[in-house]
Specification:
The complex is a heterodimer of chains A (about 260) and B (about 260). Chain A is an all-alpha fold. In chain A, about 70% of the residues lie in helices and about 0% in strands. Chain A is globular, with a radius of gyration of 20 Å. The relative contact order of chain A is 0.13. Chain B has a domain of about 140 residues: Rossmann fold, CATH 3.40.50. In chain B, about 40% of the residues lie in helices and about 25% in strands. Chain B starts with a strand and ends with a helix. Classes of the chains: A mainly alpha (about 260), B alpha/beta (about 260). At the A-B interface, helix 1 and helix 6 of A face helix 1, strand 5 and helix 3 of B.
Chain lengths: ~260, ~260
């Protein structure tokens, strides 16, 4: 079924994801490369607002430093923003690709996947350099920059899993976006982003681990802000939770794959 | 049959009925709670289809609306999976279904040529090389960097035809697309299709223009309620189909009296 019979299924799949990712990026930025750096504007403004309001109260939990509080907030925000923006853009991807799926034989997964790929490109080009600069300046341990890639990878895997799940649900239930908005808000609130973990009651703290964004963000903060060797167990938990979410998301997607065509 | 390129073996296909479906999680949950939940039903669209198509054959599909013609095409293309039975195809299929579905209105014409070409099975590299030829055939050389939304519907259809037919197919699928643009462009399309007709390309075409099927196809398959009602030389199939329609019309008139 390929134009070039010698092309393998793998290269066909790559071509499709690549061209759709390019399309998604082009539609978003209309040729202006600097557009990617706009994605930094939102977390910077939010960080400034949180700092003004909360840093006087919370900085004692951050070695008494307003800067450390601000950076911890910034790191939390960029991770959570990536997660919500990427999953929200992938949510309608199968349905909006439905017209094409009905005309040409295409693997349905390329539609949510290319949305995640476009958002990940933006993360890697726009956000990761900012995190790398913070890491070099604050942790003063240059090899920590490489370690950043571990929780970033876990974050992308986790996001992909959720994208598979929500994009397949949306095929059958078009009121999912309202519900999902609530879910992302809950996830956002239950990760310590602008408040320290220490203010959460002991009994409740264990529940933080249910939110798979928590180990990712804590890991990023340790690597970027601490001089000490980061906790590899924490990174392992982040990776494990991400892989479990990806596997579950894919199971739901694969189980419904053939049914999509009758509903999109 | 010597050298079949398409084999459809005992294919039946059921589709989920979506016209009664609410697409709404809230309502579904409420209806389950209130005990008035209705299970989704499936409807048979194709039943027990057997056919083989040889290399280079030109086959027409005819039948009433809802008889399953487009569903059969989609099953042969691999877009829909049969509920039971098997479809096997050798060679690359290019569907020339409603043109322009692959376009992104915001992106320039050149980007869309590459996008659509890759979706249809080419590589990005190959499509970049083909851009000038496609623009020339569609007579849109001066519109390369214009967003597709600015094009008239006729121009967009020309572009779609130019891209889809630029990929060299082994099997070409046509679903009622033979009237594009003005008389001048129609002639051009016909010439390009004629070329496929002569060059051992297998063609499967759905059309309500029975005269076209009778003249252009070697063979015609008449579908009725998802089953093959007749499969034979185009002239004969079209003749039987017309005779049945006439008889049904007469009976309908008679029953009114």
């Amino acid at each position: 079924m390929t134009g070039n019979p010698s092309a393998s299924a793998g290269s066909r799949f790559y071509e499709l994801v690549h061209i759709l990712t390019l399309r998604n990026l082009k539609v978003r930025y209309r040729g202006s490369v600097l557009g990617i750096y706009w994605s930094l504007l939102n977390p910077i403004i939010m960080t400034a607002v949180y700092s003004v309001i909360f840093s006087a109260t919370f900085q004692r939990y951050y070695q008494g430093s307003a800067l450390r509080y601000a950076l911890a907030v910034f790191i939390g925000l960029v991770a959570v923003n990536f997660f919500s923006a990427a999953t929200t853009s992938a949510l309608p991807a199968l349905v909006s690709g439905g017209l094409l799926l009905n005309k040409i034989k295409l693997p349905p997964v390329i539609f949510p996947l290319s949305m995640i790929a476009a958002q990940s490109f933006q993360l890697i080009v726009g956000i990761v350099p900012a995190l790398a600069i913070i890491t070099v300046l604050i942790s003063r341990t240059p090899y920590h920059v490489l370690l950043l890639l571990l929780p970033i990878t876990a974050l992308i895997i986790l996001t992909t899993g959720v994208a598979f799940f929500v994009s397949s649900l949306y095929v059958f239930f078009r009121d999912i976006p309202y519900l999902y908005e609530l879910v992302t808000f809950l996830l956002w609130l239950t990760v310590p982003i602008f408040y320290p973990v220490a203010i959460i009651p002991e009994q409740v703290r264990a529940f933080l681990w249910i939110n798979p964004l928590y180990p990712v963000i804590e890991s990023l903060r340790q690597i970027a802000l601490e001089r000490a060797t980061p906790d590899f167990l924490l990174m392992g938990i982040a990776a494990l939770e991400a892989i479990v979410v990806l596997a579950l998301g894919w199971l739901v997607f694969a189980a419904n794959r053939r049914k999509f065509m009758d509903f999109v | 049959m010597p050298d079949p390129v398409v084999t459809v073996n005992g294919v039946s296909l059921e589709r989920w009925m979506r016209d009664e479906y609410a697409y709404d999680l809230k309502n579904q949950i409420f209806s389950i709670l209130e005990g008035r939940h209705q299970k989704q039903t499936r409807k048979a669209v194709l039943s027990d289809i057997d056919l083989e198509i040889a290399r280079g054959e030109k086959v027409g599909l005819i039948g009433a609306n809802g008889a399953g013609k487009s569903t059969l095409l989609k099953t042969i293309c691999g877009i829909l999976y049969p509920t039971s039975g098997e479809v096997s195809v050798t060679g690359n299929i290019v569907p020339l279904l409603e043109l322009g579905a692959g376009f992104d209105p915001e992106l320039p014409v050149i980007e869309n040529i590459i996008l659509y070409g890759v979706l249809l099975g080419s590589s990005r590299k190959a499509m970049i090389e083909k851009v000038p030829a496609v623009l020339q055939f569609a007579e849109l050389q001066n519109y390369g960097s214009v967003p597709v939304k600015v094009l008239s519907s006729g121009m967009a259809a020309r572009l779609g035809f130019a891209i889809a037919t630029d990929v060299r197919p082994d099997i070409l699928i046509l679903d009622e697309v033979l009237s594009i643009g003005d008389e001048h462009f129609k002639q051009k399309c016909r010439r390009r299709l004629d070329q496929f007709w002569h060059e051992h390309v297998t063609v499967i075409v759905v059309s309500h223009e029975l005269e076209f099927i009778r003249q252009a196809c070697d063979r015609a398959i008449w579908l009725e309620n998802g089953r093959i009602a007749y499969d034979g030389p185009a002239r004969e199939t079209v003749g039987r189909y017309l005779a049945t329609i006439e008889r049904q019309a007469m009976e309908a008139i008679a029953s009114l009296r």
